[in-house]
Amino acid sequence: MLRVLFFLVATACPAAWAGSAPDACQLLTAIEASTVAGVPLALGGHAGGGECRYYGSGGAAANALEISVKVEPDAASARANFARWAAPAPGSSELAIVPVDNVGDQASITRNGSSRSGICFRRGAVLVRIGVHPGVSDSALTAAAITMLSRM
Fold it and tell me: What's the pTM value of the predicted model, to 2 decimals?
């Protein structure tokens, strides 16, 4: 399932977003998602607001980048829920979670072997998760998070 591909990242929450998530597809464009994934991606699904999916020509099974954004009631709630939001799907024997400094208020990169990678970050009350299949470099994930943070 594609949800397994995601890994969360948390970012800032302007007052205008209180209670509703920003449009995830506006935080990272298809061109930028393609740069992260290293292959051309196109919009594959936009559930509106806090969900956005980009897929390669082979569909989600071949290449995918998915974004989830969630706004908590306040920064304290987001901080308390970050670990659960950033937790990858269970069942991997090759799971690695590494904290990342200087990205939002809190961030971590998650890897499930070479098959999936992601970054989760938090700024204020906003939690963000980016998942990529197949996995990409830590620098590509961090660059995506920084780009998204600049738009929040």
Answer: 0.82
